[in-house]
Amino acid sequence: MTAVSDVGRITGETATDVVEGEPLLEVDGLKKYFAQESGLLSGVSIDTSQFPPIDVGRERVKAVDDVSFDVRRGETLGLVGESGCGKSTLGRTILRLLEPTDGTIAFKGEDLAEMSGEALREKRAEMQMIFQDPQASLDPRMTVGRIIEEPMRAHDMLDDEGREARAKELLEKVGLDPHHYERHPHAFSGGQRQRVNLARALSVDPDFVVCDEPVSALDVSIQAQVLNTMDQLQDEFGLTYLFIAHDLSVIRHISDRVAVMYLGNIVELADKEELFENPQHPYTEALLESIPIPDPRKRNARGVLEGEVPSPVNPPSGCRFRTRCPRLIAPERYALTDEEWAHTRAFMRAVKRRTFEPTAAADLEREFFDGDLPSGEAGEIVADAIESIATDSERGAAGGTASAAADGGEVGADAVDWETATDLLLESFAERSICARERPAYEVDPAYGSGTHYAACHLHR
Ligand SMILES: Nc1ncnc2c1ncn2[C@@H]1O[C@H](COP(=O)(O)OP(=O)(O)OP(=O)(O)O)[C@@H](O)[C@H]1O
Predict the structure, then answer these.
(1) Pairing relationship of beta strands 23-37 and 102-107 according to DSSP bridges
(2) Count of domains for the chain
(3) What is the pLDDT of residue 52?
(4) Is there a contact between 62 and 312 (Cβ–Cβ < 8 Å)?
(5) Across the chain, which distance is largest between two alpha carbons, in Å?
(6) Which of 79, 153, 360, 415 could form a disulfide with 392 if both were Cys (CB 3.0 to 4.6 A apart)?
(7) Cα–Cα distance between 393 and 263 in angstroms, integer?
(8) Could you tell me which residue ranges the ABC transporter domain spans (predicted)?
(9) Which atom of ligand 1 is nearest to the CA of 244?
(10) What DSSP letter does each residue of 225-291 carry, written as one string?
(11) Are 347 and 236 contained in the same domain?
(12) CA 261 to ligand 1 center in whole angstroms
């Protein structure tokens, strides 16, 4: 049970309106697009849903694109994903530090997305944010006492004396010496400064705190101490956390449930143990496999995420992870065996990334297909792709690749037509996969506990 300390009770209202375990925050269909000014031509996009259909100079960065989840009172929901996948934007949009493009953000049943002016200002006391860089977020000219009192002053809470008493009490609660009330931020270490930030966030007695990479800038040894303090404060103050981090070991330490974000979407959400022990999305699996393994003999077992995160301006259709996914699903039309598809997929990825030196067609067939191309239409497509890149093929004569034949019909490694092969393979296989056609959203049976396990992957269809 959560015990709310006296220092927490200054507004006379302690979120008793939402019972522990019930949703405190319900996010539905949330989008945050940024307009991005860009170069003359790169900025021209065609949007047939409007008139005129051409939109000049404005591209939209789809940082958060249709995200739905809830955060239950008293829990810590971890939010993890690679850099640039939209975690900070999601956290800030929820707190209305950024204007949402679409969707609802229900906090204790009231839609923050619709709120403005005084109503929103009042709500802000109930929701606070802690940022990554404790240095940058503390004004060096102010004493820590004043820094902690600032939000109380902004929300007209208590009188001068009351604020000072509360600031000193909070210093103690976050593990600092109340006598340091008059000190300036520079007198504190990084970990201590983050504790000052915690005290400041708690000063207005919030129910909900978005913590954006709060320990990423700290030494590993200090991280655990600050996380433990955050844990204690959560119990004592009855707090609910949305905890953003790219570091899975930090997420594992602090979270009750974990949401995994990729390119503006939540791709998996489950109880912590379920997510770590029974991951069901290939992106989550890849993230877990890329946790550094201390034992150097096991390093080769590490999975590595291939390629770059695509641009959020023009994200892939269907499942956003499909362009990097090692488990892309075969298009139904070819009726490939698992082995044929595994070979085809590996070949397609290798061609796309140009990870091999082209050789004779028979060598490529041996290397990628054990000398045995898939049967039927798929096999013909693969044979055509091989034809485009093999060093012994008659590309010019086949008429497929004019560039190869342009200099006297000499076909060598430099005339290899990677582009034709890549386009052919991607159009025939990747673009015809269900992964490219439909956005996945499934619930799977949990192996650990009984919590809901959401996995946005068509492997669960
Ligand atoms: N003000 C902005 N204008 C345009 N694009 C933005 C803006 N803020 C963020 N973005 C873009 O939105 C995407 C998501 O960024 P965001 O910072 O939310 O990701 P993140 O997962 O928090 O990454 P990091 O951990 O690196 O902060 C990125 O492509 C980023 O470049």
Answers:
(1) antiparallel
(2) 2
(3) 58
(4) yes
(5) 90
(6) 360
(7) 40
(8) 46-288
(9) 22
(10) HHHHHHHHHHHHHT-EEEEE-S-HHHHHHH-SEEEEEETTEEEEEEEHHHHHHS--SHHHHHHHHTS
(11) no
(12) 13
Tokens of 155: 């929300």
pLDDT tens-digit map of 307-341: 888 999 999 999 999 999 999 999 999 999 999 99
17 falls within a domain: yes
Pocket test for ligand 1, best of 89, 94, 244, 283 (most atoms within 8 A of CB): 89
The last residue of a domain, from among 255, 272, 300: 255
Of all protein residues, the one whose alpha carbon is nearest to atom 24 of ligand 1 is 83
* Omega of the bond leading into 52 within 30 degrees of 0 (cis): yes
Kindly tell me if the per-residue pLDDT of 57 is higher than 70: no
| Cα 63 to middle of ligand 1, angstroms | 6
In a shared domain, residues 85 and 206: yes
Lowest-pLDDT choice from 231-235, 238-242, 392-396: 392-396
**pLDDT band with cut points at 50, 70 and 90 for residue 14:** very low
CA angle 184, 189, 193 (to 5 degrees): 60
**Distance (Å) from CA 286 to ligand 1 centroid:** 22
Strands 58-72 and 23-37: antiparallel
Please report whether residue 394 resides in a domain: yes
CATH of the domain at 73: 3.40.50.300
235, 346: one domain: no
Give residue 350 CA to ligand 1 midpoint distance, Å.
30
Atom of ligand 1 nearest to the CA of 261: 21
Q: Name the closest-CA residue to atom 7, ligand 1.
A: 34
Range of the domain at 422: 332-432
Ligand 1 is surrounded, with C-beta below 6 A, by: 34, 36, 61, 63, 81, 83-89, 246, 312
Residue 305 lies in a domain: no
Stated pTM of the model: 0.87
Pocket test for ligand 1, best of 34, 93, 94, 267 (most atoms within 8 A of CB): 34
Q: What is the pLDDT of residue 191?
A: 93
ipTM of the complex: 0.97
Query: What single-letter DSSP state applies at residue 409?
Result: T
